[in-house]
Specification:
The complex is a heterotrimer of chains A (763), B (199) and C (104).
Chain A (H helix, E strand, L loop, with lengths): L6 H28 L7 H8 L8 H27 L9 H5 L11 H8 E9 L8 E8 L2 H24 L8 E8 L2 E5 L3 H20 L3 H19 L6 H32 L4 H14 L4 H18 L8 H4 L5 H10 L1 H11 L6 H22 L5 H21 L3 H28 L17 H15 L5 H19 L5 H25 L6 H6 L5 H16 L20 H4 L3 H6 L5 H9 L1 H24 L5 H7 L1 H8 L4 H73 L6 H23 L7
Antiparallel strand pairs in A: 1-2, 3-4
Chain B lengths: L2 H22 L3 H21 L3 H25 L12 H20 L21 H10 L7 E2 L14 E2 L3 H21 L11
Antiparallel strand pairs in B: 1-2
Helix pairs in contact in B: 1-2, 2-3
Chain C lengths: L5 H21 L3 H25 L6 H31 L13
Classes of the chains: A mainly alpha (763), B mainly alpha (199), C mainly alpha (104).
Chain lengths: 763, 199, 104
Amino acid sequence: MHLENPGLLYVAATLAPLASFLLLLLAGGLRLALRKNREAGAGAALYQMLGGDRPHRAAAFIATGAIALSFVLSLVGFVYFLQDHPLPAHTETPHAAGHPEGGPAAEASSGSTADRWAGSVRWAEIGRFNSSKSTVLALGYRIDSLSTVMFLMVTFVATFIHIFSIGYMSEELAPVVEDHQVHTEEGHLHRRGRFGRFFLYLSLFCFSMLNLILADNLFQVFLSWELVGICSYLLIGFYYERRSASNAANKAFITNRVGDAGFIIGLLILWTYLGTFNFQELFHKLPQALQDGSLPKWALIVAGLGIFLGCVGKSAQFPLHVWLPDAMEGPTPVSALIHAATMVAAGVYLVGRVYPLFTEEARLAIAYTGGITLFLAATVALVMTDIKKVLAYSTVSQLGYMMLALGIGGWVAGLFHLITHAFFKALLFLGSGSVIYGCHHEQEMTRMGGLYPKMKITAITMLVGVLTIMGFPLFSGWYSKDMILAQALGYFLVHRQHFLLFALPLFTAGLTAFYMFRMWFMTFTGPPRDEHVHEHAHESPRWMTVPLIVLAVFSVCVSWGSPVWSAESSYLGGHHGLLEMSEPADELKNLKMMDEALNSAVHDSHTLAEVLAYVAGGLGVLFAALFYYWRVLNPADAKLQFAGVHRFLWHKWYFDELYSAVLVRPSLQAAHWCRNFDTYIIDGFINRAAWATTMLSRWDGIFDLAIVDGLVNLTGRIIFACGAWLRRFQTGYIRSYVLFLVLAAIGIFFALTYFLNLAAAGP
Amino acid sequence: MSQATILFLIIAAFTGLSAIAVLVSQNIVRSAVWLLFTLAGTSGVFFLLGADFVAATQLLIYVGGILVLVVFGVMLTAQGPFITMKVGAAEWVIASVVGLLLLGVLVMSMPGPEAFGSSEAAPANARVSSSTQLGETFLGLPGAMPEANVSGLPKTATAVPRTRVAYLLPFEIVSVHLLVVLIGAAYLARAKRRKGGLP
Amino acid sequence: MSEVSLDHYLVLGAVLFVCGALCMAMKRNAIGVLMGVELVLNGANINFVAFARYNPVFRLEGQVFALFVIVMAAAEAAIALAIVLNFYNNHMTVDVDTAEELKG
């Protein structure tokens, strides 16, 4: 069937979970609005149809259906993609065929190929008043082989995690759920079940993750970046009544925000100097801008480091790694999907996408960050006893591997490890979820042990995962890990001063094997450490075990090529594989960042790296078995002997305490100081002003009363006194009146006689 | 000192002292008696001035009428033994001062002899046999009517003729007036129930 | 004093007038006030008649006027006495000081 724009299949795949989200939101909102009519009336029937007092199971089916539809669409799109861009044979140059713009093999259909797999919609225009300098914000998509592979991985893993969640979150279907970890006055907290809400958030997350992979410009990536951060916050704090969960959600979001600040700085620098967000345009403009000086080198370094800082936050690298272990407060499917397979992978994915933007200095920084992270996390994982914490630190460590690989030029190696890691880490998390569910929400490995006979499927699938992460031959992790180690060795051979960049990953490979097998041995073998837990342990239902099996199968065979035993021939990450098709070799060549010496060194040192990896891994397994399987060496003794080291590792290198002292406590101090300033100085000032006003008004009142009123009263009193004095003349006696008459007559007479001379006037 | 002068002095002193005695005496009946003497003295003064009719009328009406009335009033309003209503000394002082002041003003305002041409009684007036003349004037006989000065007319070149005035009309008015007064007095003094009786 | 002139008579009239006025002002007995009135009128009468005698212009009118005054005095005395009797009926006394309703 011929499709005009197969790229739109991917757009549809992205929008399907969004539709599911909106539908679930609408249904949930409607149910909430109708809740008060639930007794009777027209709303009651609708309310009951939407689930009534308990969440409706259909929410899960809608969400799972949507993501499964996305997977199907991705698969169909993948088929079309392979039609347009077939995997090149070994003789052809791999890179040319991968790019939609062209290469000899795809010349004939280069124009139409580009249209079929890319497109965009103009969304907004910034700076429209100055049309030459305006920037267009667009929502667009651009599909290349990396996108297709990421799409397949994300939708596949997400689908099976959705299915797993239907079983795992089944107790949220009850109308009232008792939370044993939250204590109120009446005992444990009782709340409504939140089954639907879980799938609502999962759908939103799937949409945003797919949008991130789909995007063809940094702005859209940033939008999705923030959106996945929100979903992570909502899902980590799913049991928000627990203080630990809400703190962890805050920690995750705030730490991510620190990284996002760097991301925004990078975005701003790129926009200022290059005027665009679009990836293709960026790569196009970059060499010219560097040459003619419109983009200074320092600005590019800062931009690169800024965007990398965002990735550090999102992918939990040192020093922003502190949120990931705490994020295990969320339900286990959340840990599997978001904090193992997909969201944390977004950082690595972005580094791979904008790879040409990183200068030599920036890439070295990336490599060292990854190196420090992988070592740090692995050492902490050695002493953790919570099964999910072990896996969390393992995730941080593996992400460090990916960053390291990307930093030293192994673009394919890093992204290859990303894909394989998604599968086996999701498998391991779901397996741990199964263990936790089976042991009735018991997460401490110190209370597990001897669970193998009780949970055979879980145990075997987890063993597959452990072997994969260790790098057991023919399991998918082996291919990617060896590629990284080969890259590291080659880099070391070329740049002798960066020996840490090889020593750390090698040593950590051994540590990885040790702590993963330690986890497996402690959980499934040996005598049970807690009889009560062991008695009630059971295998999980089919909802949960089937995804485990599927993921186990895939984590074994996802990297296979032909022949199987050759890493180079892997369809996914090997030579001429899918990932290599998208490697930005042309851009790197244009920027003169392609190091041919490095590539040949890597190629030559492949075998040596492999051998060293076997040695390290083998030693790790040996020690794990000695401690925990054959129990020849006693872990408790070791703990006592290395008490100081153990304490240091147990407190996670005291990072939380460091951040608390340096960041949290000063902030609180500043807040207290501000509060005191406000209370005593500002409020004090206002209170004094008010007091002064009161005093003034009191004085004014006295003044008004005494002087103003006094004057008025005085006037009245004077007049009254005058009247009273005059009143004395009104004696009431006729005689005195007559006297006054006489006096008046005298007066008039006098006046007439002497002053007016009328009396003398004659006739 | 002619005979007229001495006569005048005696009568004038008599009248004046009686008037002062009316003022001074505390007893109301004694005041009435002194009033009698004053009125009689006034009548004498009139006789001296050649106004016989007026003097006779004065005696008739004033002494024989009004004074009797006054005495009647005194008797009618008697309250037991004739109690004297005393006046305080301060009031005497004030009254004397005021009285003297009034007297002074009146005396000061008298016109001098130059105001009227001559201070002597004009020989023209010697022909006064007032009662005949008064009677003729009241009846309006033309020959007896005096010439009067009409004041208030504008001073024009042509002399205003002196008109003859008749006193008939005022005579009638007075008569009617007396009648009215009679009726009024009778009404005012009609007998009505006394409040509370005599003390 | 050689001749009795107008002034002498006027002075006499003035004396009577003043006594009458003071009587009106001083006497507490209502009848006494009445006597004062008579005195005043008499003083005026003397003035009238004196002027009639000594004023060449004022020949007869003075006497006529004095007659009228006498008549009026009689009428007025009658009325006044009626009033005094009324006063006596109401207040049981002729003391004018008791009529102090106008006292302010």
